[in-house]
Amino acid sequence: MSAPTVAACQHAIADCDPAANVATVRTRLAGLADRVDVAVFPEYALTGFVADDRVSDAALARDGAELATIADAAERAETAALVGFVEDAGDGLYNTLGYLGRDGERSYYRKRHLWGDETDVLDAGDRRTVVETPVGRTAFLTCYDLNFVRESAALVDADVDALFVPGAWPAVHASNWDLLLRARALDGVRWVVGCGRTGARTLGDPCEYAGRSAVVRPDGTVRARLGRDERDLVAPLDPAILAEQRALVGSVGESRE
Length: 257
Known about the structure:
By secondary structure, the protein is an alpha/beta fold. It has helices spanning 18-30, 54-58, 65-76, 118-121, 149-157, 174-188, 239-249, and strands at residues 5-9, 38-40, 80-88, 93-100, 106-110, 130-133, 136-140, 162-167, 191-196, 214-216, 222-225, 232-236. The mean pLDDT is 95.
Protein backbone atom coordinates (compact mmCIF):
# COMPACT_ATOMS: atom_id res chain seq x y z
CA MET A 1 0.00 0.00 0.00
CA SER A 2 1.34 3.45 -0.90
CA ALA A 3 1.99 6.05 1.77
CA PRO A 4 -0.73 8.65 2.46
CA THR A 5 -0.16 11.96 0.70
CA VAL A 6 -0.63 15.49 2.02
CA ALA A 7 -0.88 18.75 0.07
CA ALA A 8 0.04 22.11 1.60
CA CYS A 9 -2.05 24.47 -0.53
CA GLN A 10 -0.13 27.74 -0.30
CA HIS A 11 -1.96 30.86 -1.45
CA ALA A 12 -2.68 34.54 -0.87
CA ILE A 13 -5.78 35.54 1.11
CA ALA A 14 -8.26 38.42 0.77
CA ASP A 15 -8.75 39.87 4.24
CA CYS A 16 -12.38 40.01 5.39
CA ASP A 17 -13.69 38.69 2.05
CA PRO A 18 -15.05 35.18 2.69
CA ALA A 19 -16.70 34.88 -0.72
CA ALA A 20 -13.41 35.43 -2.56
CA ASN A 21 -11.51 33.09 -0.24
CA VAL A 22 -14.09 30.30 -0.44
CA ALA A 23 -13.86 30.51 -4.23
CA THR A 24 -10.05 30.25 -4.03
CA VAL A 25 -10.14 27.22 -1.76
CA ARG A 26 -12.74 25.50 -3.93
CA THR A 27 -10.57 26.06 -7.01
CA ARG A 28 -7.48 24.73 -5.28
CA LEU A 29 -9.31 21.62 -4.10
CA ALA A 30 -10.62 20.96 -7.60
CA GLY A 31 -7.11 21.27 -9.01
CA LEU A 32 -5.37 18.85 -6.64
CA ALA A 33 -3.28 15.96 -7.89
CA ASP A 34 -5.11 12.70 -8.47
CA ARG A 35 -4.35 11.28 -5.04
CA VAL A 36 -4.17 13.64 -2.07
CA ASP A 37 -5.43 12.29 1.24
CA VAL A 38 -5.37 15.57 3.18
CA ALA A 39 -5.24 19.16 1.89
CA VAL A 40 -3.93 21.72 4.40
CA PHE A 41 -4.64 25.43 3.87
CA PRO A 42 -3.12 28.52 5.54
CA GLU A 43 -4.26 30.27 8.70
CA TYR A 44 -7.49 32.27 8.16
CA ALA A 45 -7.81 30.74 4.68
CA LEU A 46 -11.55 31.44 4.46
CA THR A 47 -11.76 34.87 6.07
CA GLY A 48 -8.43 36.60 6.38
CA PHE A 49 -8.05 38.83 9.42
CA VAL A 50 -7.98 42.44 10.54
CA ALA A 51 -8.08 43.61 14.14
CA ASP A 52 -11.18 45.82 14.04
CA ASP A 53 -14.95 45.57 13.63
CA ARG A 54 -14.64 44.31 10.06
CA VAL A 55 -13.52 40.92 11.36
CA SER A 56 -16.90 40.44 13.04
CA ASP A 57 -18.64 40.90 9.70
CA ALA A 58 -16.34 38.35 8.07
CA ALA A 59 -16.62 35.72 10.82
CA LEU A 60 -18.21 32.38 9.94
CA ALA A 61 -20.32 29.91 11.88
CA ARG A 62 -19.29 26.27 11.98
CA ASP A 63 -22.63 25.24 10.53
CA GLY A 64 -22.71 27.99 7.92
CA ALA A 65 -22.89 27.74 4.16
CA GLU A 66 -19.19 28.50 3.67
CA LEU A 67 -17.94 25.46 5.57
CA ALA A 68 -20.59 23.33 3.86
CA THR A 69 -19.34 24.53 0.47
CA ILE A 70 -15.75 23.59 1.33
CA ALA A 71 -16.83 20.21 2.69
CA ASP A 72 -18.64 19.52 -0.59
CA ALA A 73 -15.60 20.58 -2.64
CA ALA A 74 -13.34 18.33 -0.55
CA GLU A 75 -15.70 15.42 -1.02
CA ARG A 76 -15.65 15.95 -4.78
CA ALA A 77 -11.85 15.99 -4.68
CA GLU A 78 -11.90 12.80 -2.56
CA THR A 79 -9.73 14.38 0.11
CA ALA A 80 -9.96 15.61 3.68
CA ALA A 81 -9.34 19.34 4.21
CA LEU A 82 -8.03 21.54 7.01
CA VAL A 83 -9.13 25.18 6.66
CA GLY A 84 -8.74 28.20 8.93
CA PHE A 85 -11.28 30.94 9.59
CA VAL A 86 -12.47 33.51 12.09
CA GLU A 87 -15.23 31.67 13.90
CA ASP A 88 -18.37 33.39 15.17
CA ALA A 89 -19.22 31.16 18.13
CA GLY A 90 -22.07 33.32 19.41
CA ASP A 91 -20.26 34.05 22.66
CA GLY A 92 -17.06 35.31 21.03
CA LEU A 93 -14.73 35.20 18.03
CA TYR A 94 -11.95 32.61 17.63
CA ASN A 95 -9.10 31.80 15.26
CA THR A 96 -10.34 28.34 14.32
CA LEU A 97 -9.22 25.42 12.18
CA GLY A 98 -11.86 23.10 10.79
CA TYR A 99 -10.88 19.56 9.82
CA LEU A 100 -13.38 18.19 7.30
CA GLY A 101 -12.91 14.45 7.22
CA ARG A 102 -13.57 12.19 4.26
CA ASP A 103 -16.18 10.37 6.32
CA GLY A 104 -18.19 13.56 6.80
CA GLU A 105 -17.08 14.10 10.38
CA ARG A 106 -15.74 17.47 11.46
CA SER A 107 -13.27 18.46 14.18
CA TYR A 108 -12.20 21.93 15.27
CA TYR A 109 -9.21 23.55 16.92
CA ARG A 110 -9.14 27.08 18.34
CA LYS A 111 -5.73 28.77 18.46
CA ARG A 112 -4.51 28.72 22.05
CA HIS A 113 -1.80 31.38 21.83
CA LEU A 114 -2.94 34.59 20.16
CA TRP A 115 -0.39 36.87 18.56
CA GLY A 116 -0.24 40.67 18.70
CA ASP A 117 -3.49 42.45 17.90
CA GLU A 118 -5.43 39.18 17.70
CA THR A 119 -5.91 39.66 21.44
CA ASP A 120 -7.88 42.85 20.75
CA VAL A 121 -10.74 41.09 18.97
CA LEU A 122 -10.45 37.32 19.52
CA ASP A 123 -10.68 34.87 22.40
CA ALA A 124 -8.09 32.13 22.88
CA GLY A 125 -8.97 28.46 22.68
CA ASP A 126 -8.50 26.24 25.71
CA ARG A 127 -8.32 22.71 24.27
CA ARG A 128 -5.96 20.69 22.13
CA THR A 129 -7.35 18.63 19.25
CA VAL A 130 -6.16 15.21 18.12
CA VAL A 131 -7.98 13.35 15.34
CA GLU A 132 -7.52 10.24 13.27
CA THR A 133 -6.59 11.21 9.72
CA PRO A 134 -5.27 9.19 6.75
CA VAL A 135 -1.73 9.81 8.07
CA GLY A 136 -2.48 8.54 11.59
CA ARG A 137 -3.12 10.38 14.86
CA THR A 138 -2.83 14.04 13.95
CA ALA A 139 -2.83 17.25 15.97
CA PHE A 140 -3.16 20.87 14.92
CA LEU A 141 -1.28 24.02 15.86
CA THR A 142 -1.84 27.49 14.41
CA CYS A 143 1.10 29.77 13.61
CA TYR A 144 2.30 31.32 16.92
CA ASP A 145 1.37 28.12 18.79
CA LEU A 146 4.61 26.74 17.34
CA ASN A 147 6.62 28.84 19.80
CA PHE A 148 5.34 27.01 22.88
CA VAL A 149 7.30 23.86 23.70
CA ARG A 150 4.68 22.74 26.22
CA GLU A 151 2.21 22.28 23.35
CA SER A 152 4.64 19.98 21.59
CA ALA A 153 5.32 18.05 24.80
CA ALA A 154 1.62 17.53 25.43
CA LEU A 155 1.21 16.13 21.93
CA VAL A 156 4.03 13.64 22.51
CA ASP A 157 2.00 12.32 25.43
CA ALA A 158 -1.00 12.12 23.09
CA ASP A 159 0.98 9.79 20.76
CA VAL A 160 0.67 12.07 17.74
CA ASP A 161 2.11 10.85 14.42
CA ALA A 162 1.70 14.09 12.47
CA LEU A 163 1.28 17.77 13.17
CA PHE A 164 -0.50 20.11 10.73
CA VAL A 165 0.38 23.79 11.15
CA PRO A 166 -1.46 26.47 9.15
CA GLY A 167 0.30 29.81 9.45
CA ALA A 168 0.40 33.45 8.37
CA TRP A 169 4.04 34.14 9.20
CA PRO A 170 5.51 37.54 8.29
CA ALA A 171 8.24 37.24 5.65
CA VAL A 172 10.65 39.26 7.79
CA HIS A 173 10.62 36.43 10.35
CA ALA A 174 10.65 33.53 7.86
CA SER A 175 13.74 31.94 9.42
CA ASN A 176 11.86 31.47 12.71
CA TRP A 177 9.03 29.66 10.92
CA ASP A 178 11.56 27.34 9.26
CA LEU A 179 13.32 26.61 12.54
CA LEU A 180 10.19 26.00 14.59
CA LEU A 181 8.65 23.60 12.07
CA ARG A 182 11.85 21.53 12.21
CA ALA A 183 12.01 21.73 16.00
CA ARG A 184 8.44 20.53 16.48
CA ALA A 185 9.11 17.57 14.16
CA LEU A 186 12.31 16.63 15.95
CA ASP A 187 11.20 17.09 19.56
CA GLY A 188 8.07 15.02 18.94
CA VAL A 189 9.58 12.58 16.42
CA ARG A 190 6.65 13.16 14.08
CA TRP A 191 5.84 14.40 10.61
CA VAL A 192 5.10 18.13 10.43
CA VAL A 193 3.24 19.83 7.59
CA GLY A 194 3.32 23.63 7.68
CA CYS A 195 1.14 25.57 5.24
CA GLY A 196 1.94 29.28 5.10
CA ARG A 197 0.02 32.24 3.75
CA THR A 198 1.79 34.04 0.93
CA GLY A 199 1.22 37.39 -0.76
CA ALA A 200 0.48 40.55 1.20
CA ARG A 201 -2.09 41.79 3.70
CA THR A 202 -4.98 43.43 1.86
CA LEU A 203 -6.37 45.47 4.79
CA GLY A 204 -4.70 47.27 7.68
CA ASP A 205 -0.97 47.78 8.15
CA PRO A 206 1.25 46.47 5.32
CA CYS A 207 2.68 42.98 5.75
CA GLU A 208 4.34 40.57 3.36
CA TYR A 209 3.84 36.90 4.24
CA ALA A 210 6.54 34.25 4.14
CA GLY A 211 4.82 31.37 2.39
CA ARG A 212 7.55 28.71 2.79
CA SER A 213 5.16 25.82 3.29
CA ALA A 214 7.12 22.71 4.22
CA VAL A 215 6.93 19.01 4.95
CA VAL A 216 9.41 18.04 7.66
CA ARG A 217 10.51 14.49 8.42
CA PRO A 218 10.45 13.00 11.93
CA ASP A 219 14.23 13.50 12.13
CA GLY A 220 13.84 17.27 11.70
CA THR A 221 15.09 17.46 8.13
CA VAL A 222 13.02 19.17 5.45
CA ARG A 223 11.44 16.71 3.02
CA ALA A 224 10.16 19.45 0.68
CA ARG A 225 9.59 23.20 0.77
CA LEU A 226 8.02 26.02 -1.25
CA GLY A 227 9.10 29.62 -1.67
CA ARG A 228 6.40 32.28 -1.96
CA ASP A 229 4.60 30.99 -5.07
CA GLU A 230 0.90 30.15 -4.99
CA ARG A 231 1.04 26.42 -5.56
CA ASP A 232 0.64 23.05 -3.87
CA LEU A 233 3.37 21.18 -2.05
CA VAL A 234 2.45 17.50 -2.33
CA ALA A 235 4.41 14.85 -0.45
CA PRO A 236 3.90 11.34 0.97
CA LEU A 237 4.12 10.82 4.73
CA ASP A 238 5.56 7.32 4.87
CA PRO A 239 4.70 5.51 8.13
CA ALA A 240 7.80 3.33 7.70
CA ILE A 241 10.02 6.43 8.00
CA LEU A 242 8.19 7.42 11.17
CA ALA A 243 8.58 3.95 12.68
CA GLU A 244 12.26 3.81 11.74
CA GLN A 245 13.05 7.16 13.34
CA ARG A 246 11.13 6.35 16.52
CA ALA A 247 12.96 3.07 16.84
CA LEU A 248 16.27 4.89 16.42
CA VAL A 249 15.50 7.62 18.94
CA GLY A 250 13.73 5.35 21.39
CA SER A 251 12.14 8.19 23.38
CA VAL A 252 8.59 8.50 22.11
CA GLY A 253 6.20 6.71 24.41
CA GLU A 254 8.54 6.55 27.41
CA SER A 255 6.56 9.20 29.27
CA ARG A 256 3.44 7.05 28.95
CA GLU A 257 4.96 3.91 30.48
